[in-house]
Each structure stands twice: as C-alpha cells, then as structure tokens.
Design a protein that fits this description.
The chain has about 230 residues and is α/β, with parallel strands linked by helices. The chain has a single domain, classed as Vaccinia Virus protein VP39 (Rossmann fold). It contains nine helices and seven strands. The protein has a seven-stranded mixed β-sheet, sandwiched between helices. It binds S-adenosylmethionine. The site of S-adenosylmethionine (SAM) has 20 residues, from helix 1 and helix 4.
Length: about 230
C-alpha cells in the first residue's frame, strides 16, 4: 500500500500540460466520467465538499455545477493548485496544499469528499482513505474515480496496447517529460494488481459501498457512505 514515488514532484512537472493531455489521452471521455461521478454522489446546495487530489480543478468545475454550500480543494502539488487558481470560476476558491495522509480538517466536517484519479498516487492509500472517513459527517459520501485495467480478456489486450505503448509515447511528446507518463501508467498497473478499493473501504468502516465500471471497465467509480 505504500507508494515509493515522489508523486508531488511528478505532478509539479506535468502541471502545465496536464489538462491538454488529459483530454487528448481520454479522447474527451473524462468529462463524462466526472459528470457521472458527481451525479451519483448525493450532492446538493447544502453540501460541504472536499475535492481531494483536485489537481488543476477540472473535477471541481463539474462539482460546482451543483452549487454546493461550500467547497474546498486540496492537493499535494503546488503547481497543480496554481493552475487551478488561474481557471475561470475557480480564482477565489479555497485551495490548500496538503497530502491526503495529513489533511488538516475537523472531524465530521464534510458531507461529500471526491477523489478523482488521485487515490492510486497516495503515498499510503489506507491512511489517506482513513482520514477521509474521519472528516466526513455521519452519512456523508465518498466518491472515487480511478483507472483500472478491463477485466474482459479481449478488451484488456487491446486497451493494454494503447495504455502501455501509445499513451506514454504521446505523454512524453506533449509533456516533454521523459518519465512522468511511464510512472503514471505503471501506477495504474500496480494499483490494479494490489488494491481492492471496495475491501479497503469496508475495512475502514464505510457502508453502502457501490462499484460501477465505466467505458468497458477502464475506469471504476466507487461510492461509499460513512
Ligand atoms: C491524475 S491527477 C487528478 C487531478 C484531478 N482530480 C482530475 O480529476 O483531473 C492526480 C492528482 O493527485 C495529486 N496527489 C497525488 N498524491 C497525493 C497525495 N498523497 N495527497 C494529495 N494529493 C495527491 C497530484 O498532485 C495530482 O494533482
């Protein structure tokens, strides 16, 4: 469960071109994943929301469409947060630089926590998710989006070709970073092999855990309740 890489450093390096690459590499489907995740989260205009591992704020934007009472963004990468702060509609948002393993919020504070494509990068996934449990209100909702490798053999074969060969090459060219996208695809493989999010959340104490597989199972969407 421990993640040895210096993820802060990696995301600082790719922050500049992160959005562009995201949309190219997912052919724009990431917008659908985000919309679906927020829709299933029980969010309302009374919600107090944390967007954890918020990155450059694309997910935050999807959340804001529901006009929650309060929203706080948190991420370990200073450069990702800087990018977020430059975006239209996000300039005055509360954004703090922190790692999930040491989030400085009151217990029982948030009604909703979202983590989109961030969990697998945590230094210690269990610790990060335990913290989420603590700072959620009773009956509060955790919503996680994360990549996984498709379970069906044929799809997995074709997707692996794209994911492990084509994607790092495009990532290398556009981000002009030789290794960051290799790390990113390897992190998906490692996470897929080692982590069962549903079991992890159950052991922490979450209830009503549901898992949805999106786009032929390349993304998992998990919702859970405290
Ligand atoms: C792939 S990006 C996803 C960003 C955003 N949620 C999105 O959907 O576009 C992963 C983010 O997780 C952040 N991150 C990685 N490890 C973290 C940790 N331990 N605590 C908080 N944020 C972390 C990175 O800095 C990066 O911005």
């Amino acid at each position: 469960m421990q993640n040895g890489h210096n993820t802060k450093n990696i995301f600082d390096r790719i922050a500049k071109r992160y959005d562009l690459l995201n949309h190219i590499l997912s052919i724009g489907i990431d917008k659908y994943w985000r919309r679906k995740a927020v829709k299933l989260s029980n969010i309302s205009n009374k919600s107090i929301v944390l967007d954890l591992a918020c990155g450059s704020g694309d997910f935050t934007k999807a959340i804001m469409k529901y006009q929650p009472k309060k929203i706080i963004c948190a991420d370990i990468s200073e450069f990702m947060l800087r990018k977020l702060k430059k975006k239209k509609g996000l300039k005055s948002i509360d954004a703090i630089q922190t790692k999930a393993e040491a989030i400085p919020f009151r217990v029982n504070y948030f009604t909703n926590i979202f983590i989109a494509f961030g969990v697998r990068n945590f230094y210690n996934i269990n610790e990060g998710l335990k913290n989420c449990y603590d700072i959620l209100q009773f009956k509060g909702n955790l919503t996680i989006l994360e990549f996984q490798l498709p379970r069906r053999k044929f799809i997995r074969k074709i997707y692996s070709l794209y994911f492990f060969k084509v994607l790092p090459a495009i990532g290398r060219i556009i981000s002009r970073d030789k290794t960051a996208y290799n790390y990113l695809v390897e992190s998906v493989k490692k996470f897929d092999n080692e982590t069962n999010l549903k079991n992890l959340l159950q052991n922490i104490g979450f209830k009503n855990i549901r898992k949805y597989e999106l786009t032929q199972g390349i993304v998992q969407l998990i919702t859970a309740e405290k």
